[in-house]
Structure formats: structure tokens, C-alpha cells
Amino acid sequence: MSQEKAQSRYEELAEKWLKGTITPEEAKEYAAWYNAGQDAPVEIPASFAANEAEQEERLWRKIAARTGFPDHTATAAPLRRRRWWAAAAVTAAIVTAGYCWHHWQTKAPQPQQLATAIPDALPGSDKAVLTLGNGQQIILDSAGNGTLAQQGGVHIVKKADGSILYVDQHSGTIPDTLYNTMTVPKGGQYKLILPDGSRVWLNAASSLKYPVAFSNKERTVELNGEGYFEVAASAASPFHVKVRNTQIAVLGTSFNVMAYRDESNIQTTLLTGAVKVKQRTIERQIAPGQQAVVNNENGHISVGETETALATAWKDGQFRFSSNNIPMVLRQISRWYNIDIVYQGSIPQGHITGKVPRNMKLSGVIRILELSGVRCRQEAGRLLVFPSS
């Protein structure tokens, strides 16, 4: 078939999809074309919306209507296993996803069938444990508002929005050797206001160790997991974030650090200001819009431009992926839903691009994964992942 005829054929199939008249055989044909790696740009039929985001939204609503998605997921872009060239490729990707969902329905138990036997995993929520310098632990999600504890002249206060605030009644009198640790479990997140006024958001499966009061010379905290920082400016007192052998030095800035132990690197993404990332004897400075990546194996630091919204999406209530490999996507899901990922055979290959709200139940995320060709099934406390068919 000539390229011109092929283009006409897939435009015809795209129109049929939007009108709801496409047959299973035609949907399979469209899916086979896309999965074969057809990367040539295809013109959009005139009836398509001119704006790519609007096209994606319209097509996603079509998918939602056909697969029983709740209405609130209509604005969630389906995860995509490939990048697309333009709006026509958007159509191909979503049609392909729709076919994958239809195909998988015939091979695996339906989420509706599983729901009666297996409780649906809920998304994470604000929860954390605060460990004081004397070893006392406070479960923050069940603690009331107001003063939770007092250490010397410092009052630890839970605000009405749930965040924790340190109020130093006798500034400079508390030794900086007295540390607190905030620990956020899997399935949680929490916000903290440090003694100097710096704000920290902690993601699931993360912890932050910090002094009850900072000295006048420097401010140092220790992070495990992922945190977003908005550091209060103080030229006389540099702020340092320690992550194992890596140290991040700032004066006043906003940045995100992803440093989970089960990831292959430490990522520092800068939004405003300037930071220096040091790994043993290697030091690199990054500017806003850049990301420093420290390789955990060899300590090498690479710096490049990045889309900062990808790094901070978790703080804003979203999963956002840009050509992330499937295991990395599943690790994020594991932390947020407090479930274990169990591979049933070989690990699926490929990369995913897309965004999903973090307030969905796990069953909704599973449906979107399946639309992307990732075959999985929920069990109690586990997500079973099957090899690509």
C-alpha cells in the first residue's frame, strides 16, 4: 500500500473511532500499524480539533465511555508507551490503548469481579511519625492541632492544615545536637516547616532528620527518599541537604531531591535560585530548569535541562512520566499505594509517558496501565505484573 493510501486509510479509521463505528477488526488493524513503529507524521482530518490537548481530551473521553472509567479520570491523560509525532499519532496511541484494554479483558479477571473479594487499595494521604530527641514518637495523622511537644524553648505545633511548625521561644538557646526525625511511610506524604522557616514536603517512604534549632553558622538536614524544599534565604547560614555520600548546598532556593535507595541515582531538580551538588570530590552547580543526576554506582554527576514539573508533580497531586521505564513507574505506584510489586515472569520492557491524578484508587490506575499495554492485577497488598503479550 502506498504511503498516500495508508495515510488515507488511517485517517478513515480515526474518524470511525471518534464516531464510534470502528469494528474490532479495524481497531486491531489500527493498533498493529501503530505498534509496528510507523513514525511518519499523518495529517489530521479536518473534523479533528485544532488543539492537540483538546484532541487528547476528546479521545480520552471516548476511551473512558467505552471502558467504564469514572468521570473524574476523563482529564487524566492515558499513559503512553511511545512518543507521538502530532495529533494523528495521539489518536493512534489512544486507539491502541483502547484495543489493549479490550484485548486484556478477554484474558484476565475484571476489576469489577475482583472488587468483591479484594479491597481496592486507596491512594496515599497525609501521614507521618515524628520522633523527638528523647525517642518519643508522635503519630501526626492522629494527633490533634496545637502544641504537640516542647523541647527546651522550642514548641512543636501542628497547624490547622496538618503541617508541623517549630516555634523557638528562646532563639539560640537550644543545642543543634538535639535532632528530630520525621518519617513518612509508604502510602503517605507530609509537610514540615523547619525551625528557620524553610518548608519541606516529604513524599511517600521518606524521612528527614534535622535539628530542633539551627546554629548561626549552617543549617544541615539529612534526607532519605524524596523531598521538595523551599529554603528560607540566609547568606550567613548556608543550607545543606545530605543524602548518603551526596551533599546539596544552597543559600535560598526551591528544589526537589529524589534519593530513594531502590533507584539507580539521586536527582536534584532546581526551580529557583542556585545549588551545588557535591559527591565526594566532585562538585557541580546547577541553574533553574536544570537537574543534577548522581550515579549511585560510580558517583558521576551529570547536569542537563529538564522539565521541572515532572520532578514536582507528586507534590501537586499527580504522577507524571516522560519516557520512564516501566519498573520505575511501578516503584512510584508501590510507594504511594503501599503495595508490593510482584513480577509474574519477565519484567515488561518499554517506556511510559503520561499523567495520572494521585487521588485515584489503585483500580483506576491499573486500568490506565492496562490501556498502555502493562498487564497487571491487584491482590491484597500486591500488584501482580505480567509479561507483555
From TrEMBL:
Top-level taxon: Bacteria
FecR protein domain location: 181-276
Segments passing through the bilayer: 84-104
Annotated Protein FecR C-terminal domain residues: 319-377
UniProt-recorded Gene Ontology molecular function terms: sigma factor antagonist activity
InterPro entries: FecR (IPR006860), FecR_C (IPR032508), Ferrdict_sens_TM (IPR012373)
Keywords, in A-Z order: Membrane, Transmembrane, Transmembrane helix
Name of the protein in question: DUF4974 domain-containing protein
